[in-house]
Amino acid sequence: MITDELRKILATKLKAEILSAQIGQGGNTTSPLATTLDVPLSSVSTTFVAEKSSENVVQVKIEVLGSNITGLVIREAGIFNHATPASGSLLQRVNFEGVGPFSATERLQIFITMEVE
């Protein structure tokens, strides 16, 4: 068992480690040994915000403009501990049912919630 204080510390450390986000078109399950997304869209610009929504919960919001993913179907998202995903470690990858294709006027928002227990 870990204490409430350690949960707070770990959530704060996790938030500080999240330095970039990336989306991709891969959709199969994730191996714990994975270092990248399955089919990353390296040239697609994403914005993200990582924040502690409570003492032990970190929420990441990833946003991509439709003009950057026009005609594409997105099936995965990942967060990394380096400003350039290719240079950092994959901290978490989420695969999901494909969304899209997108038009230039749409916007994709992905929310990832992590709870330290």
Written account of the structure:
A 3-stranded antiparallel beta sheet has the order 1-4-5, with no helix packed on it. It has one helix at 4-17; strands at 20-24, 47-54, 57-65, 74-80, 90-99, 107-115. The longest helix is centred in the first third of the chain and has 14 residues, at 4-17. It has 1 helix and 6 strands; from the N terminus they run αββββββ. Helices cover 12% and strands 41% of the residues. By secondary structure, it is mainly beta.
Throw out a few tags for this protein.
3-stranded antiparallel sheet; mainly beta; 117 residues; 1 helix
Question: How much is the radius of gyration in Å?
Answer: 15 Å
The end-to-end span amounts to 9 Å
Oligomer state of the chains in this structure:
single chain
Q: What's the total helix number?
A: 1
Number of extended strands: 6
Strand content is: 35-45%
